[in-house]
Amino acid sequence: MRLDGETSNSNGTSRPFSNGSGATPLHKAALSNSTNGTRGSSASMNGLSNSNGLFNSSTKSKPTYFGHDREEVTRILIQALTDLGYNGAAASLSQESGYDLESPAVAAFRNAVLQGEWDEAEDLLFNKPMEEGGVSIRGNGLVLQEGVDSNVMRFWLRQQKFLELLEQRDTGRALMVLRLELTPLYQDIGKLHFLSSLLMCQSVDDLKRKAEWDGAGGDSRYHLLSELSKCISPSVMLPEHRLAVLLQQAKQSQISKCLYHNTATSPSLYQDHTCDRDNFPVTPFVELKKHSGEVWQVVFSHDGSRLASCGHDGTVVIYEVGSFEVLHTLSDHDKGVGSLSWSPDDSMIVTCSRDNHARLWDANTGELKRTLARFGEPVSSCVWAPDGQTFVTGCLDKDRNLCQWGLNGELIYDWGQPHRIQDLAMSPDGHRLVAMNHEQLLHIYNFVTRELEYEIDLKSKLASVAISQDSKYLLINKTDGEARMFDLDSREFVRVFNTGDLSNEFIIRCTFGGANESFVVTGSKDGYIYIWHRENGVLVEKLDGHARGFCNSVSWNPKNPCMFASAGDDKVVRIWSNEDPRLKSS
To answer: Cα dist. 182→118, 148, 199, 464, 505 in Å?
Structure first.
């Protein structure tokens, strides 16, 4: 498909564990009976062993566990047993080994944060020494990681205190905390202004929504403890769920070395992992020939049960996945349809046409629900807000080129920028909107505030953009045959995938795919489909997809990692799999 605006000469897998963060903090269940802070001996503290005959201070070198530090291994095991609920076993291991999971100071700090004793938490962290039997068991504050700004940690604690006072509707005390405790720390002025605005919230629900915070009774204190623990020396405060993190890293390391890993099933810990190419979708079992012209885009629905394609002939065809029978043909477009977008619940589709119109359709009935007022230039792209109540269109005109619309066709917001938009991407978490202009610039907006966060100049013409399901990575396809993966938070390029195939002024779409989006896949000018391993950048497959012309678009089924679809200038949509998908539907 030609870039609009041109003349006719045209699991990776995210880690499921972090240092204490997660959907269900394990310390909730284990807090009252965990071994955290339990001492195997009065001489044991901060993970140091007592003198139980196993080791002697005069010994030149401690015994190791297959080359690993014995104390580290034991403390990690104690923590893992506690996480698993085996508190008696954890206590026995601590007593027998002489190693404690945490010192009393760490245990007291943990409890202070989880119980909302903010002054006590600050004292333990920075000032107040603890004593036991008249002997100081802790120096002037817990040992912090090198380079950590203690004021940042204070700010986090006081911010939580401020929010909880607002939740209690104690606005007077919250204001005093803001003025006397938070402001003197000289943190980000913008952040202070934001916190000040929360004083005007009319309800607790409004506070939680605006602050993106779940309250004292939710997980906020556990997340705070997790962030604070990352600033404390791990030898003092062991990172939470450390064994689980190490096991996940071991699995991920094996997955990253397995080119054909394409299953959501987690590898077994019992043996080393490998996958066979026979389970990878490399065979085109189905050819769909319902278009009379070039097919420019193909997109699976979010639930993977339907497939929609559009192209030069101005029609959109919706297929049932499995039988691949035509469910609906949307044909009210006067010119070619360059792109389409499924609503989050798959009930609606927006089509973007070169007749300068965007249309909203009922995807279940094929009925046209709304046609937006005519734009001055072709409508190039569309993305949905995560709630499915609004959508954003991109247009090549200088007016209304980036607009948010309601389901009744009403204009919700016009960014009013001069850039002509060629493609759009919305992060699944709804935080970022990426707008690609028709040249070489990317504009990254905060979708909540609608403010521009930053811009990226790629120094070459761009073709398409896509965002990973974890909302962390942006995939940028360029017309010089190069695709780049970009970290939206760190604002750094992570990896480059290169076909060496110059598409000049044509649109070639690139996307993530496979189980846990472990792959990057793109079409090409020469009709080939290129599949790379996302984590190591190795080219996994080069498939002859549409040899008689461009392969314009590839879409991986989000619910079936062994199926993807490709579309090309040969008027064909091909379904790739490791076995004939029609056999399962019969």
So the answer is: 13, 18, 14, 43, 53
